[in-house]
């Protein structure tokens, strides 16, 4: 403010000063309103920009980058209130070196040193050194040949572990490098040729799919054992490329097993089919009829299906012929009777085979996973609030308060899992209502809270089943290995390659959860002398003691 303006203010009368202040207040109000409009427009442009970036990534067949950083709710609620300090927490999480006391000593070497005369021997100082010997070994097999009197030729058989001129140890190394090491075939060839082997990319590819049926059968048995015996499964999906087309990979797992299944779609029909191991089998039973009623199928359609003499259909072709014979294939009504009846038939087959009989499906609220006894992931629910873009201070404060209350409630749910009881469950239900029935004045946030209130039963499933997780973090962690594989190696071309990728990644993750070295597992399956590894399906679902 210039000296002249100060002098002019001093010469103004009180009434003139009051008028000037009122004008300034009005101007400030106008500027504030204009600033809020600009902030709202900027927030809208940010959302539009993010949407356009996602669309560009989709057109380029690239996965969109997450538009928001994680909120940090899971990490912030790991320790109950009043727990250790940050310094104590950092100390407790500090990692130590490898436990050398568990190592088996293969060789002992005593090192000596010349000491001057008069020195006294003070014993030995021991240090354990780990090393690895990796060298190429080429064996010439002289196979004896005979010709019988009948003219039949006999030749001595090769060892069972040899595949296309490659021994079992090389086979295991290639699988380890590709599955656990996430190395491409080109880099594996480069590494092996550097070690002195003469091997081509075609041979490496053959090793990755050799003896595939054995691994696929075990992977399928692991999935069935997990679905039959697990108290819960967490599910998720991600994009995949196969044969030059866009596909989707579904992850199904628990704390004891992991399975991946890739196919052209991610509808509920596709999900139910993958739960059955990819086989299309349809059964009309009580579970299927209940599913059809929940899908609002007309009662006359349900009666036709339930009252027919044939209730079990082993293939999709027979099932579709049955629907056409009943006159259901040509109905142009909503809900689509073919789709709803097919989903019900698959769900009936799942029930008939004893899968998911006691398991809760925990998902991120994707529509295809909302079947059976279903629970929602709290991290994904909170993320909806975290992703909101407030336009002014009032909205920012409303979002911050809502997040604090959700974090507080999430911590209480974690404490409940450690010591569940009916009284605490009732209290948590009432607290949930108080949090999500609030109205903040921020219309978008209020709609979101109302939406989450409508999913109360699925968000509070843990009160009935405290053994289930509160989130799908385990699925996201498991599926990260698949995403890394996709980024490094791209897609698959042949069906064998797709099946090998899904089966081997699933078996590797299952071994990790069962605390079995994948190296030992591969050795046991390829006939290499070493630790005996039981069939993984028996370990995933152990017999009751």
Question: Quick recap of the structure?
Answer:
With 545 residues, the chain is of the alpha/beta class.
Overview of this protein structure:
This protein has 545 residues and is of the alpha/beta class. Among the domains are: 145-209, no CATH class; 279-352, no CATH class; 378-463, no CATH class. It contains 22 helices and nine strands. A five-stranded mixed beta sheet has the order 5-4-3-8-9, with helices on both faces. Strands 1-2 form a two-stranded antiparallel ribbon. A two-stranded antiparallel sheet has the order 6-7. Strand 1 and strand 2 (153-155) form a beta hairpin. Helix 5 packs antiparallel against helix 21 (518-525), helix 10 packs antiparallel against helix 13 (337-352) and helix 16 runs antiparallel to helix 17. The longest helix has 46 residues, at 14-59. It is extended. It starts with a helix and ends in a 5-residue tail after the last helix. The model has no long low-confidence stretch (mean pLDDT 88).
Q: Any descriptors?
A:
single chain; 545 residues; alpha/beta; five-stranded mixed beta sheet; two-stranded antiparallel ribbon; 22 helices; 9 strands
Shape: extended
Terminus-to-terminus distance? 87 Å
Helical proportion, percent range: 40-55%
What is the overall number of helices?
Answer: 22
The strand line-up of the biggest sheet is 5-4-3-8-9
């Amino acid at each position: 403010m210039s000296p002249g303006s100060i002098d002019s203010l001093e010469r103004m009368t009180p009434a003139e000063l009051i008028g000037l202040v009122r004008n300034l207040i009005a101007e400030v109000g106008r500027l504030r309103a204009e600033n809020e409009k600009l902030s709202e427009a900027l927030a809208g442009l940010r959302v539009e920009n993010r949407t356009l970036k996602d669309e560009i990534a989709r057109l380029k067949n690239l996965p969109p980058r997450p538009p928001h950083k994680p909120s940090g709710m899971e990490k912030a609620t790991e320790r109950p209130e009043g727990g250790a300090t940050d310094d104590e927490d950092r100390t407790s999480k500090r990692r130590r070196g490898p436990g050398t006391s568990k190592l088996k000593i293969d060789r002992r070497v005593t090192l000596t040193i010349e000491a001057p005369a008069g020195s006294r021997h003070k014993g030995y100082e021991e240090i354990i050194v780990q090393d690895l010997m990796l060298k190429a070994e080429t064996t010439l097999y002289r196979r004896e040949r005979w010709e019988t009197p009948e003219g039949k030729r006999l030749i001595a058989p090769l060892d069972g572990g040899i595949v296309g001129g490659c021994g079992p140890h090389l086979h295991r190394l290639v699988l380890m490098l590709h599955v656990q090491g996430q190395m491409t075939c080109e880099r594996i060839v480069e590494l092996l040729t550097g070690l002195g082997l003469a091997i081509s990319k075609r041979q490496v590819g053959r090793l990755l799919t050799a003896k595939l049926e054995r691994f696929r059968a075990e992977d399928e048995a692991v999935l069935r054992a997990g679905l039959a015996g697990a108290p819960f499964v967490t599910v998720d999906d991600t994009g995949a490329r196969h044969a030059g087309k866009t596909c989707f990979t579904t992850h199904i797992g628990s704390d004891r097993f992991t399975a991946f299944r890739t196919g052209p779609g991610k509808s509920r029909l596709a999900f139910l089919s993958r739960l059955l191991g990819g086989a299309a089998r349809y059964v009309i039973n009580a579970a299927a009829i209940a599913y059809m009623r929940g899908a609002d199928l007309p009662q006359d359609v349900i009666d036709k299906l339930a009252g027919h003499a044939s209730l079990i259909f082993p293939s999709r072709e027979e099932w579709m012929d049955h629907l056409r014979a009943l006159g259901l294939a040509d109905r142009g009504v909503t809900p689509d009777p073919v789709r709803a009846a097919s989903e019900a038939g698959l769900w009936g087959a799942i029930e008939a085979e004893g899968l998911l009989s006691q398991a809760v499906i925990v998902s991120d609220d994707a529509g295809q996973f909302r079947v059976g006894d279903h629970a929602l992931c709290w991290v994904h629910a909170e993320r909806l609030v975290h992703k909101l873009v407030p336009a002014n201070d009032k909205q920012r404060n409303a979002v911050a308060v809502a997040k604090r209350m959700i974090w507080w409630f999430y911590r209480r749910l974690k404490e409940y899992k450690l010591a569940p009881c009916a009284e605490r469950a009732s209290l948590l239900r009432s607290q949930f209502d108080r949090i999500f029935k609030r109205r903040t004045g921020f219309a978008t946030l209020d709609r979101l809270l109302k939406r989450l209130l409508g999913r109360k039963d699925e968000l509070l499933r843990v009160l009935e089943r405290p053994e289930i997780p509160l989130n799908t973090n385990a699925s996201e962690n498991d599926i990260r290995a698949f995403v890394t594989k996709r980024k490094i190696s791209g897609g698959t071309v042949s069906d064998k390659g797709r099946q090998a990728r899904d089966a081997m990644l699933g078996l590797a993750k299952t071994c990790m959860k069962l605390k079995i070295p994948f190296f030992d597992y591969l050795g046991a399956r390829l006939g290499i002398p070493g630790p005996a590894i039981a069939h993984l399906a028996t370990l995933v679902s152990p017999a009751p003691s």
